[in-house]
Every structure is written in C-alpha cells, then in structure tokens.
Amino acid sequence: MGDKVKLGLKRDEVMLVPYTDEWEKEFQRVKKEIQENVNLDETRIEHIGSTSIVNMDAKPILDIVVGLDDITNFDNTIIIGLQKVGFLRLKVERPNEIVFAKFVDDTYEEKTHYIHLVDFGNELWNNLIFFRDYLNSNESAREEYKNLKADFIRNKQGGIKEYTDNKEKFVNEIYGKRKNV
Q1: Which one of 44, 75, 119, 138 has the fewest beta carbons within 10 angstroms of its own beta carbon?
Q2: Could you give all domains of the chain from N- to C-terminal order, each with its CATH number?
C-alpha cells in the first residue's frame, strides 16, 4: 500500500480522518486482488461505508461488501481466496453477514479493511449500496451524518459499540428512504 493512504484502527479505537480519494484507489486495488483470487463477478464487490462517500470524514478502515448467492452455503475456495489476499474470517456473529478483516501485521491488533459477505441482492446488500449512493447524491444528508459523527468524537462518548449505536438511528432513517423510492 502506498504511503499516501494510511489505514488502520486498533480494537475499540474510534478516530475519524478527512476524506481522501486514495480510499477509492485502494478499493479498486483490493477489488482486483479479490477478483484474481476468488471467482466473483465484479458487480458483486462494492465499496461501502463512509470511505465510499465523497468528502465524508471516516474511520480509516475500508469497508467492502461481497455478494454471494447464499452465505449459508458457499464454496470454501472463497475463504481460501480471501485469505490469499490477507483477509481472515472474524468470530463476529451478525445476522445475514460473515465478516472478514485485513490487519496491518500478524499481531492482529490493527484492522485496515473489512469484507462483509452477504447474500447478493438481499435487503442488507441493497441497504448498504443505497446508503452509499444516497449520501453521495444528497449533500444535506451527508453533512448531517458528518456532523453526527464529529459530535460523537468531540464528546468522547465511548468506544466502537457506542459509536455504532450513535449512528444507528440516522442509518436506519436512510435505509427507510429506500423503501419509498
């Protein structure tokens, strides 16, 4: 990875950094690596989360969603392929999602990327893509989200769980808009 883009957060660390278009370049690089090692169509690998939203301050971790036909029953070569490009499956249990992370080094202290394996085209996939696209096309929603995150950091209201909980109402409101489109 180039010196220009610094990714990585330790467990339970919450920090925001200013947007950089290097995040999109890094996503394209990793997407290519994933495609070379996992037999997936490029339409099933998408950049999501705050690093995919232009001018959004974000935690310096790149989020990628990968859509499979069925995450309860998929070929082990996917896990092997993701391991080849440095992604390890986490023990995190989430409904309809399997999470992988890439780390800075083998101390496994600092994560730089997440892959969220979900069912392609299901509600979670559609919500994640809609959230990114909606915030990229709606400046007032983008500013509101940016301010919500900045307020949390300014007030030092806790770790990653509290940070995520703090954003949940806003995120769900945006997901709700998808149903009205």
Answers
A1: 75
A2: 9-178 (3.30.460.10)
